[in-house]
């Protein structure tokens, strides 16, 4: 069976039933008064894993991290770190460091003192400490800002200080709450790779919250997508992208076209969806929907072929009119309006600098795709 | 703020300030009077200041006052800060409103009542009145001023700073000492200054709670004035005014820089 995505992983403890989880949330619920921020959540994260939490604002990501760091106690359920229950263990006794979403830099200390704070607390000798601070400053490219106070820094610089401070102690578990949100794209990408290197080098476990799905895809071994206090799906970036388990996840990560229809089985692991946009054949991976049920076919724009002539032998083809074209440099996104009114997005890679006779506005075009290129979703 | 300075405005300001400060200015000027007679100007001299330093009674009183003010301000600052911390932090303990009310009540309580009730307390528990009773009384009434000042700073203090310290390995108390306290220190110091000056110029409560051998400077001045104002008293008062003004100025500078700092931080934060 072909695998999802093109990465063959050597590191996949979550597939090994004998592997012991490093962090384990077991049916954890957290309520603030009558409001439930995290609901009956179970999650295992393994040692040396780079784990990302992704989800809309207010879905409980920070709350989850704060329970791990010890600033909130779960209302119900148990939390284990390295097999030990965390209940009642105060934050300063947990082998965990957290980078706060609000940075929480100490305003009365210089950048260097902020970074050295945790090391001093551990009683690390001065020469070693200075060396570590210098190394951290280098990591976040703030060498010439060591003597400044936090209020003399820009937002992005402060964020980097907060990052350096949380990494400095090299905790076994590092929790980062939106560590790179305030950085520009270039710096963000550089820091991402340096964080990944650091993680590899030191064998740390990372748990990170981000709003940026591209960042999550780049860095993570696995991603959990959250919605309103529950985890909707956990999986590798490729699984989440290529095999989302619901329209919510498909829509949250990347762009997607969703076509609705009533189910008829078509044999050989395939079903046919009859909907307003026409007839679509899709492959089912597990759990085929029942005949007559409403289901959705989700397909990514880059998996749709676009052409002027009806494609020969394509199982799925849809005709429409070019509605909008967005040139992004590396690729071009073409929005095609079907007869039903649905707009389908197709993306083509711009492999050649000069194109003869490119597709233009209001042209009639054909879209075609393979049944295996998308997924059939039941919710 | 852009209104022009009309004659009316200027006159009101002049009268207002004259009303407030003319008596004080007169007192300061007459403390440098050559003449023994308080109301007759006979040339400039600093002799009353010299005289003052030979007046053992006044010096003793001043020494008592400074000691009382120092001890009471220090204790009140510690207790007031603790009270402020618990008021801000434990927002949901039972009887919080009552506790808050009780901390602030002495702010508006007539001093006579505070003094009298303390006197009754000391008498009933048979506490010999003297230095320590005045000090205790001053702690009681200046504590709430400190609590108010520190509390207003704490409400804008970001709790996550303390959490970050704990996260980096500090037990809660250490986190408070290493992070929270340094950050709110200007407020704590201005609380101390306030308590110090309040104690320094208190007459009413001290009169109620003091005993033999523990006459404070305001009490001493008051009793001497009843025998007639001497330029010496003017000199003492001038010094007292100086000390109090310096205290108030330092306290307000600390508050001001804190304010400026905060605004700058906020601007920087928004400029991200
Ligand atoms: N101390 C608290 N008291 C009451 N409600 C809280 C508290 N902390 C968080 N919440 C609520 O819990 C929900 C989840 O908050 P949380 O901070 O975990 O969101 P988040 O996923 O981190 O969001 P964002 O991406 O905006 O940071 C929110 O609706 C929030 O209002
Ligand atoms: Mg958050």
Automatic annotation (TrEMBL), chain A:
It is an enzyme of class 7 (translocase). Residues 23-253 form the ABC transporter domain. Its EC number is 7.6.2.11. InterPro entries: AAA+_ATPase, ABC_SmlMolc_Importer, ABC_transporter-like_ATP-bd, ABC_transporter-like_CS, Mo/tungstate-bd_C_term_dom, NA-bd_OB-fold, P-loop_NTPase, PotA-like. Keywords: ATP-binding, Cell inner membrane, Cell membrane, Membrane, Nucleotide-binding, Translocase, Transport. PROSITE patterns: ABC_TRANSPORTER_1 (PS00211), ABC_TRANSPORTER_2 (PS50893). GO terms for cellular component: ATP-binding cassette (ABC) transporter complex. Gene3D superfamilies: Nucleic acid-binding proteins, P-loop containing nucleotide triphosphate hydrolases. GO terms for molecular function: ABC-type putrescine transporter activity; ATP binding; ATP hydrolysis activity. It catalyses: ATP + H2O + polyamine-[polyamine-binding protein]Side 1 = ADP + phosphate + polyamineSide 2 + [polyamine-binding protein]Side 1. Belongs to the ABC transporter superfamily. Spermidine/putrescine importer (TC 3.A.1.11.1) family. The complex is composed of two ATP-binding proteins (PotA), two transmembrane proteins (PotB and PotC) and a solute-binding protein (PotD). PANTHER family: PUTRESCINE TRANSPORT ATP-BINDING PROTEIN POTG (PTHR42781:SF5), SPERMIDINE/PUTRESCINE IMPORT ATP-BINDING PROTEIN POTA (PTHR42781). Part of the ABC transporter complex PotABCD involved in spermidine/putrescine import. Responsible for energy coupling to the transport system. This is Spermidine/putrescine import ATP-binding protein PotA. The gene is potA.
From TrEMBL, chain B:
SUPFAM superfamilies: MetI-like. GO terms for cellular component: plasma membrane. The keyword Transport applies. The keyword Nucleotide-binding does not apply. It is a multi-pass membrane protein. Residues 62-254 form the ABC transmembrane type-1 domain. PROSITE patterns: ABC_TM1. The chain crosses the membrane at residues 7-32, 68-90, 102-125, 131-150, 179-200, 233-254. One of its GO terms (biological process) is transmembrane transport. It is found in: Cell membrane. Keywords: Cell membrane, Membrane, Transmembrane, Transmembrane helix, Transport. PANTHER family: PUTRESCINE TRANSPORT SYSTEM PERMEASE PROTEIN POTI (PTHR43848:SF2). This is Spermidine/putrescine ABC transporter permease. It comes from Hoeflea olei.
């Amino acid at each position: 069976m072909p695998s999802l995505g093109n990465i063959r992983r050597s590191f996949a403890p979550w597939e090994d039933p004998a592997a012991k989880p490093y962090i384990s949330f077991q049916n954890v619920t957290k309520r603030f008064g009558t409001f439930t921020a995290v609901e009956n959540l179970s999650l295992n994260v393994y040692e040396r894993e780079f784990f990302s939490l992704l989800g809309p604002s207010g879905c409980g990501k920070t709350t989850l991290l704060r329970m791990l760091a010890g600033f909130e106690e779960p209302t119900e359920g148990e939390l284990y770190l390295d097999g030990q229950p965390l209940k009642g263990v105060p934050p300063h006794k947990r082998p965990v460091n957290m980078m706060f979403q609000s940075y929480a830099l100490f305003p009365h200390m210089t950048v260097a003192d902020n970074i050295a704070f945790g090391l001093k607390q551990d009683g690390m000798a001065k020469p070693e400490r200075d060396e570590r601070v210098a190394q951290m400053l280098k990591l976040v490219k703030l060498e010439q800002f060591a003597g400044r106070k936090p209020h003399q820094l820009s937002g992005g610089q402060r964020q980097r200080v907060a990052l350096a401070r949380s990494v400095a102690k090299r905790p076994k578990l590092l929790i980062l709450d939106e560590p790179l949100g305030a950085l520009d794209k270039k710096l963000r990408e550089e820091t991402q790779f340096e964080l990944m290197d650091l993680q590899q080098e030191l064998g740390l476990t990372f748990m990170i919250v981000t709003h940026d799905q591209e960042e999550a895809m780049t860095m993570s071994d696995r991603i959990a997508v959250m919605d309103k206090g529950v985890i909707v799906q956990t999986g590798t970036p490729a699984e989440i992208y290529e095999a989302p388990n619901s329209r919510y996840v498909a829509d949250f990560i990347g762009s997607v076209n969703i076509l609705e229809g009533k189910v008829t089985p078509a044999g050989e692991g395939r079903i046919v969806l009859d909907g307003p946009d026409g007839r679509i054949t899709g492959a089912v991976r597990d759990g085929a929907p029942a005949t007559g049920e409403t289901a959705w076919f989700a397909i990514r724009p880059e998996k749709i072929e676009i052409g002027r002539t009806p494609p020969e032998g394509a199982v799925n083809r849809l005709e429409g009119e070019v509605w909008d074209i967005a040139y992004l440099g590396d690729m071009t996104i073409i929005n095609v309006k079907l007869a039903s009114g649905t707009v389908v997005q197709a993306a083509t890679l711009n492999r050649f600098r000069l194109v003869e006779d490119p597709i233009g506005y209001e042209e009639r075009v054909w879209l075609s795709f393979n049944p295996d290129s998308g997924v059939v979703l039941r919710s | 703020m852009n209104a022009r300075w009309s004659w009316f405005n200027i006159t009101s300001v002049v009268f207002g300030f004259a009303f407030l400060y003319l008596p004080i200015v007169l007192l300061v000027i007459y403390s440098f009077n050559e003449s023994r007679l308080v109301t007759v100007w006979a040339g400039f001299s600093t002799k009353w200041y010299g005289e003052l330093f030979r007046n053992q009674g006044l010096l003793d009183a001043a020494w008592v006052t400074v000691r009382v003010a120092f001890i009471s301000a220090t204790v009140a600052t510690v207790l007031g800060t603790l009270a402020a911390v618990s008021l801000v932090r434990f927002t949901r303990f039972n009887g919080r409103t009552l506790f808050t009310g009780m901390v602030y009540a002495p702010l508006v309580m007539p001093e006579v009542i505070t003094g009298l009730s303390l006197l009754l307390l000391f008498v009933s528990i048979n506490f010999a009145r003297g230095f320590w009773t005045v000090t205790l009384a001053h702690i009681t009434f200046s504590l709430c001023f400190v609590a108010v000042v520190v509390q207003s700073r704490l409400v804008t203090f970001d709790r996550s700073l303390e959490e970050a310290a704990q996260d980096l390995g500090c037990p809660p108390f250490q986190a408070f000492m290493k992070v929270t306290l340094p950050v709110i220190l200007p407020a704590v110091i201005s609380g101390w200054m306030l308590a110090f000056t309040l104690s320094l110029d208190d007459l009413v409560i001290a009169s109620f709670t003091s005993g033999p051998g523990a006459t404070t400077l305001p009490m001493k001045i008051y009793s001497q004035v009843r025998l007639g104002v001497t330029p010496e008293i003017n000199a003492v008062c001038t010094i007292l005014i100086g000390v109090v003004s310096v205290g108030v100025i330092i306290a307000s500078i600390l508050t001001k820089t804190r304010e400026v700092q905060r605004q700058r931080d906020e601007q920087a934060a928004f400029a991200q």
